[in-house]
Structure formats: C-alpha cells, structure tokens
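Internal tracking record. Fields below are filled automatically when a chain is submitted to the structure queue. Please do not edit lines marked as system-generated. If the sequence contains nonstandard residues, flag them in the REMARKS field before resubmitting.
Queue: standard
Priority: normal
Entity type: single polypeptide chain
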Amino acid sequence: MKNPDITLYTTGGQNGGKPSIILEELGIPYKVKNIELRKNEQFEPWFLKINPNGKIPAIVDHSKDDFPVFESTAIAIYLCENYDTEEKLLPKNDPKLRSQVIQWVIFEASGIGPAQGQSNFYCRFNSEKIPFAINKCANEIKRLYGVLNKSLEGKEYLVGNKFTLADAMSYPMVRGHFFSGVESIDEFPNLKAWIERIDARPATQKGLNVPVPDKMKEYRENPEKLEEFEKLMQSYFKDRLKI
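SYSTEM-GENERATED OUTPUT FOLLOWS
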C-alpha cells in the first residue's frame, strides 16, 4: 500500500470536522486547506472540480492519481476502506459488525446531519425567526437523540462496545446540540455520557481543531462570539438567498 498523501478541504464546524477526526484517529498524515465559505471559495472552478456540489468537506488522495472524494460519509468510508488496515473504525472481516457500523453511519447522514443542518439555518442563520420551523427541527433532533440514547443503554459505544465510525460520524454533530437549538441533553443521560467519553479521546479532539481552533467549544464558552458569528452568517445568507 502506498503511503497516503491526502489534502483535506474543509472549514471549522459540525460537518467539516468529521474527516479530520477520521484522519487523526487512523493516524493518516494529511495536508489541510481552509475553505473560506463566506468568500464563496467553495464555488470557485478549481474547487468544483473536486466537489461539483460546491460544499465542504472534500479530499484529494494524491497517492491514488489525485482521486477526489466529496460528502463526509463517502470520505469516511473511503478512508477506512483504503487505510484502516487494523480495522480500528470499520470492520472488514465480520459482515454483521460491518453492517451495524454502516447502518449507524447512514443514520447520521440521513437523519442527524440533515435535521441539525436545517435547525442551524432556522435557529442561527435566518434573520427571521420562525417558531414553527425552529420547534419542528428541535423535536426531530430530540427524537433522533432518543434513538441514540436508547441504543447506548448499557454500552459505551454504539457498535461492538468500541469506538468506531458509527460514533465518529455522529459525535461532531451531537456535541453541537446547543448550536442546533437543543440547549440541554440532560434528558438523554446515556448520550451525554457518550459525548463525555469521546471528549476524552486525544485524536478526536485534535481533529476538532482542524483547520481552525474548535468553533463549537468557542461558541459554547463565549456567547458573544456565537452572536457575532450568527450576525455574519445572517448577512451572508440574506445576500446570497435574497431574503
């Protein structure tokens, strides 16, 4: 196997931190390019060649003929299938365990990610607050958190009682629950303990600080910074979407 030579294109945030967590947990060396979203760098022709959808994150694997991969879930599976030789995050030889991990990865991609993404817009980025939309998003997020909480009963992690891709993909989103309109998760004690458990993983924490210091931590600890970011994003979306 060739030594990996990967460039990660991302920015700080819930979704942008997923690939860097995977890279750090697997010990894969990589370079990183911080994409300036508010400058619309993601829509520049050079980036659209990497991701025609114009979104972060994305990677280019230079060790495999500059092969581009976009979408955080696709990136995570690609990295594991090509470089997780020790099956740290994705089982290869146990079909049932592998399926269980992938099921939870898709659960995040089709449920938690979209729900929190919608909530982020209505709670933070839309200058007009629409209570119905905000409450609908919050209720769906709590429903999904309830599924995780029940599944973590008597377990430290979601699959095989060890940290896998199943945990790594949901964690960056769930830890930012406050940003997505769910201020407290005290009603989900198993989920709360799971977050604290993953908080203690050095590689994951290193990944959260790529390409910039951990924004969710900054916003949680400094409400003024969160308010400042909200105003910047509201202005950006108002101009971009003409709302």
